[in-house]
Design brief:
Elements: H1 2-30, E1 45-51, H2 55-58, H3 69-86, E2 89-95, H4 100-105, E3 130-134, H5 143-151, E4 154-162, H6 167-178, E5 181-190, H7 197-207, E6 210-212
Pfam families: Isochorismatase (PF00857)
Protein name: Cysteine hydrolase family protein
InterPro entries: Isochorismatase-like_dom (IPR000868), Isochorismatase-like_hydrls (IPR050272), Isochorismatase-like_sf (IPR036380)
């Protein structure tokens, strides 16, 4: 009987520790990053970030389908077409879950080298655009993004994609933390969280970002 109690005790303790580790990992990963404030450039330039519009979320074989996926692709393509015409820098951002614990709990979504991790095939492919990976919600967690934007002397970020409550939110706040001017295209952002886009948009505005309806990039 004592042996059984010990087994149950250590089993319960192990489960609790695992739960605490998972909670700590999620909490850490959700926090927006902070970085060096951007420089003031003589000629301000903008970049369009397409965040996590991937086959696993919006494609025909999506593992976690967003019900607004088609609209998000359509709005993003309108923005991509304008960016290409105006010579605006484009960066495609894709989420890659390479942590085995997170991968287990997300059923293999966005696994490295998985076809579902690629950007939605319907998105316009802008020549000279780059694709960067991230393994945390904030795209700035990949230092290559910050370095690339500095190289291009970018001071304004135009953002569309998924998920409004997580990766889009964290990236926008990471950008604001660095002094970027941030514009979020509300019609090109979706969320599967309990928060509505309207409430998220209000929070973004309060944080200092500009929120726009439609899909028109202002001069």
């Amino acid at each position: 009987m004592k042996r059984l109690k010990k087994i149950l005790y250590w089993s319960a303790t192990s489960v609790l520790l695992l739960a605490l580790m998972l909670f700590a990992l999620i909490y850490w990963s959700m926090r927006p990053t902070r970085g060096i404030p951007i420089k003031k450039y003589a000629v301000p330039r903008a970049a369009l970030l397409i965040i996590d519009i991937q086959e696993d979320y919006t494609g025909p074989q999506a593992k976690k389908r967003y019900h607004d996926g088609d609209r998000i692709v359509r709005v993003s393509n309108a923005l991509l077409a304008q960016a290409q015409k105006k010579g605006i820098t484009v960066v495609y951002i894709k989420n890659v879950i390479d942590n085995p614990i997170m991968s287990f709990f997300t059923d293999g979504i966005n696994a490295p080298s998985s076809p579902g991790t690629e950007m939605d095939h319907r998105l316009i492919k802008v020549p000279m655009a780059i694709t960067l990976s991230k393994n945390r919600p904030d795209a700035f967690s990949n230092p290559e993004l910050e370095a690339y934007l500095a190289e291009k002397q970018i001071s304004q970020l135009l953002i569309t994609g998924l998920d409004g409550a997580y990766c889009v939110n964290a990236t926008a706040r990471g950008a604001l933390n660095r002094g970027y001017k941030v514009t979020l295209f509300q019609d090109g952002i979706a969320t599967e969280s309990s928060k509505s886009i309207e409430k998220l948009a209000q929070k973004w505005s309060e944080a200092g970002a500009q929120v726009k309806a439609g899909s028109e990039i202002s001069p």
